[in-house]
């Protein structure tokens, strides 16, 4: 494989998620999102399927899929995160296999899986086009690919603002892409859209920033950047601040289901 950028970014991801593994298992936005039952409804998984959950984190998608498929391979770049997730899930699910793996260089053969999923993780990937290429490669013809992630607005100023405050909040953040850029990458790999949904997602600021911040100074920097924005930017991200304190911010989230070209997945 041609050398790709990202070794420093991936080191930051492993450091961040290894240190905060338990927080991601318990995180309300990760563990209790309404998108978890929704993704099962969209996918309509079958009992004989083998599924892959890329960058499983706290294992919430793997946990949602396990009752409906034959086997789930839950992968993550961060060994400590994956071990913590396995410790939580292994008592309840015997059909989840845990594999340390890079989303951009998956250790699986071509056409292995009926289903590939990835939720609230691709903004950490240095080479998102390579991640999409790998997801498509390991899917069977007709297999399904479901992705959920924070996305940047199409407007450059708004996108820059989002990615700046996300990087300030979480040093392992690389970039939230626009929907149009993701659609370009998916189309390049012969992935055909089945359905998609763009919606607003509100984060409670204290819990959201404390999950990734290393100290109070970092929290103050994020707070200052958010509150110093123009009126138009604050309106777009629905910044809720009272008495000088940020209560919540709202960002865009895209959920999309694609099918790999070829014979229909039976």
TrEMBL record:
The keyword Transferase applies. Signal peptide: none annotated. Residues 52-146 form the Methyltransferase type domain. InterPro entries: Diverse_substrate_MTase (IPR051052), Methyltransf_11 (IPR013216), SAM-dependent_MTases_sf (IPR029063). Keywords: Methyltransferase, Transferase. Pfam families: Methyltransf_11. GO terms for biological process: methylation. Belongs to the methyltransferase superfamily. This is SAM dependent methyltransferase. It comes from Alkalihalophilus pseudofirmus (strain ATCC BAA-2126 / JCM 17055 / OF4) (Bacillus pseudofirmus).
